[in-house]
Amino acid sequence: MSINAAQAIGASNSRGGSTKLDVEVAPRFAAGQRIRVRKINPAGHTRMPQYLRGCEGVIAQDFGVFVFPDTHAHGGDQKPQHVYSVRFTAKEVWGREGGERDVLLVDVWDDYMDAVP
Amino acid sequence: MASSAHTRPLSDIEIRVKALESLLVEKGLVDQAAVDALIDKYEHKVGPRNGAKVVARAWVDPEYKARLLAHGTEAIEELGFSGMQGEDMVVVENTADVHNVLVCTLCSCYPWPTLGLPPVWYKSAPYRSRVVIEPRGVLKEFGLELPEATEVRVWDSTSEVRYMVLPERPAGTEHLSEDELAALVTRDAMIGVTKVSK
Questions:
Q1: Domain A19-115 CATH class label
Q2: To which H or E segment does residue A87 belong?
Q3: Annotated catalytic residue: which of B4, B22, B82, B104?
């Protein structure tokens, strides 16, 4: 089926297509909690940038429940889970070269992290 | 063989896009008018002037600003801006102590309804790889030198959340109207690579 001009403009004018899901899923983390990004190297799609794998950060904010791209991008399950804004210091990520007062804030899904005791 | 100084050969990516477009149209999967309508919309109707209106409103209306920082998507929609690549908006505020700058290290995620389509440099590998490592050096290349005491927050847009920077209102603009303020606001200031100046 072809998409006509009215439909295309209508879709782009609407609220678009959020991947936020209106489902109840228990968050694995809470604001203020310390986490470590898992060292993962999936063969397929992922949204966990390599430069942060293994780094420790602090949960800044819970954005709610979203589709999990690693499975969904390959036609699999939506695997609904929370996405958080996680704060990493530049020192933690880059070591000595990291700026003293620089921080990175990155969106991270539940499945990419473990709690740091 | 005829040649024209006015026609340059198409790049590989242009040829590929044209081939894909022809195929989609031939197979009846997409209507040429739909492609034209979308291009017209994003070339002429959607762009950083939308975001500038949001910023100016936040500067003159403290209650709107509070809503914008707490519930970005809804507050932006109050001014009529919503849709693709702006479904879940978070607005981050620059202050005297904190400077925010946006990037998408994985690709080119960008808030279309308020800023339009991203500039080429935003999508380039050098910007994306360098701004996370040495943000102050990159900002300096944009002409912005920040005091050492300022905290620089680099937002790497890895999920479907889209960010926009609320720049600081420049001093000496108390007498300006909302429209005049909006005219000062630039795309680059809403990405966070520059400040707004009078």
A1: mainly beta
A2: strand A81-89
A3: B104
